[in-house]
């Protein structure tokens, strides 16, 4: 069936059910970063493959809202589908409710899938779409999507306590104590990384992230894990049993929530619960008492065993990266130009090469995200990916930007290096130096307990600002422990985030600059919030940089760096000798 | 009548009116920083003279909530009054509603003054005190406070357009355009500095701040100014008439609000409207559409004439400061010790001396706040004031901290200098250098449009953090144009404030360090957000430092400053020659 056929099938179903419009988001019931194919309904309907976009289909019309990252791609992919492209944050673009109201007759009904919207999104639409009716429906796609991929569950592994550093019982007890609820309660966990961390399990149900698709309910005496029971091998079951974890069927969560009883206090570990589950749990729902989420914050503050795992993962990953850097030196940078031009390497070759070098480690469990290997102007495209079919050839000049990370059984890595392939322009060198300076300044920061990421962000951005340049993405995201390479609740970004930085939190440190049509530069290390000293007025923290991959110094304009910055780069092994 | 008598009178009145508890805040109906004596009811009842504190009186008991700045003072001043001291932000301190609920019988009535609480505070108490009743009453103190100071109005002056740089008509038109309301509306202004700025008037109804006690309602065709009509001289009336400003009685605002009609949209310029006025204006009240307030933000973005006035005020103030610095040098620092000890100078002498030097300027209109002249350990007390009765003698060692500002007819100043009176300890010198470094780093900042103060704050704090020290107050507050020395909506502080920094905003830049029992150091300049350059991706700003008062360099540990920092201090005339 072509995609017009898909929309026609949806319209037929809508008509039969008396629905005038349907909103189809890019979500699954766990609201994670990667969506299992089973839930790629928006992509199936619209042909648009970007990760962020919301489709609305009415009886006669259809429109897709996406952000500036995807304007070009969406324009291309929507061609011929009859779906209007709605550019978010561009003047004149109507909001989804505004557009629906302009399209529908009075008394129309707007349907949303009860599994793909949070309760607060649902409430938001209720109020914004008034006086139209909003109806929650359950997944209509099984009926109309021929060949829909099924939701796949895979075999579950335990993360040994020698790697996680804490038993499930201990985690549960700490969680219950932190919640501080005096009466009977049920803590409902829907985020897959929180469940994996809490239960010391890992899986491969989601691309790049070693997650197990499941829900959990935590009470003072046990954890009920809602998953695909027969994907838990006997020894995993046995460990979980010993930790008071009971495994029950994935789809029984909603009924379990309904059965909790009105006197039990329900707390959702995040506001990312589906409207269906939220409403099944009510009444007597309390908000999570901790900014950022009690369990989420516990997960983010790594213990010393987890941190040792991170350091080991960084060391293991550095072996592969060093081989890659040597490979680039020999096969591109120092290759005879006449020889190189006959058989040049491509971005895709390099991405494959890094995987090859990583695979030499026994503990490697795959990439932690889709690697970015971007040559010259491609480096300025924020979401560039070279594929087997589409890539650029690398030449013997300019920058090659490589942003890549790996999963090891004891930690997750995420590193970016921008490597000169030959001669550079003065602007490239000045930009590189400003990015390096920003990365270094943030690495050297010291700050008191209670500091938020937004307060530190300027340290990484400042040198770029002083060149009249900026990058729009965050400076640092949380990194999970053999888990998601992007995790909350901590961040270092321009936007306010009330979560404090606590010892044990692992973050990226990745200032960058993008010059359209010319070059992109990003330097990214992994940093750990660590105790520094106890002052007269409280505790102070600093960052430990755990990435061990060399940083190219050829592009550096040394006079722009302070003595302190040079000293830091030297003492952390990123440069050989501080120039005078 | 002693203060117990005051509380007894209040209780008698409460009993007569069937009130079980009354909450008495430190507010007036304009919610300004300085409260006219007429509204110092909490001070009259409790003897507590601090600027922040809320008193609750019940039939049997009374308690006063204040913050850590005032614990020592409140303890002293409340002694013998029978009023409990409730320490805010200390574990175990009940909130005001919690305490009232524990003190009152069921069905009790809590009274609040309709003129001294905002509508949102009133709603907050309604919900927090439930099931107790909350009753709004009108000022009960006229009846019981014998000798209560009357609310004093003074003669009003115009600020000529040659000083304000813009006519009232132009300000009103810009305001109405910025509000962008299509239907008939009334913009209600209750903040005194907004009214003074909008109407190009100044007065002396409030200590330190050249304000006129008034309200205003702005409509598309005129401004109605609610003030003390006979305090407006004929030529002021005539100017205001020419600017479509109609002056009516101060107390007629509430009736005017009631008379606006339900179809008129009402917008309050801040959320600081009294409960009485807010309720008189309803229904059809919309929030101010601008973050920080439309009029407040217009006032904060100074035009070039206002900025010229600020620069002139800084130059004029520098003359007085330079005389003071010379006076300190001759009469303390370089004075023969045996001679000096016989006739030492005090903090109070110095405060008076600065006023004397300032008074030599024809344009001087008084201090812009109560000056802080604090010697040695006194400098570590955040709210220290030397008075004629209570002061310290200055010795020929350690630091003297002077934080003082003045009102000139064309601008307001605010400067802090920390001046060595003789030998210093190594810790004093290192602390001084860190504060100077922070002040300099913030001064040199460059940043794109859309930056918030909280993003830049770390630049001033960072060098202190690197010593394991911190200060808890803000780094920068807005400064008015011959107006309040503290103005909004902009700020540079740790706490999130969503207001962006715009060109023309004037702020303080005042990092500090306080070592209890030893010394306090603060260095404060006035800075202006200024356009720097237009980059490929938007506008970038920088700060212009307009303070021209020398900074002592004797305490500087030069090796801690970067070349860039030294160069900045040299090029801005704060140091004579950059040391190698």
Account of the protein in words:
The structure is a homodimer of 580-residue chains. The first copy, chain A, folds into three domains: 3-144, Creatine Amidinohydrolase, Chain A, domain 1, CATH 3.40.350.10; 157-299, Creatinase/prolidase N-terminal domain (Creatine Amidinohydrolase, Chain A, domain 1), CATH 3.40.350; 304-571, Alpha-Beta Complex (Creatine Amidinohydrolase), CATH 3.90.230.10. The first copy, chain A, is 33% helix and 22% strand. Chain A contains 19 helices and 28 strands. In chain A, a hairpin with a 2-residue loop joins strand 18 (406-408) and strand 19. Chain A is globular. The model of chain A has no long low-confidence stretch (mean pLDDT 95). Chains A and B meet through strand 21, helix 18 and strand 27 of A and strand 21, helix 18 and strand 27 of B.
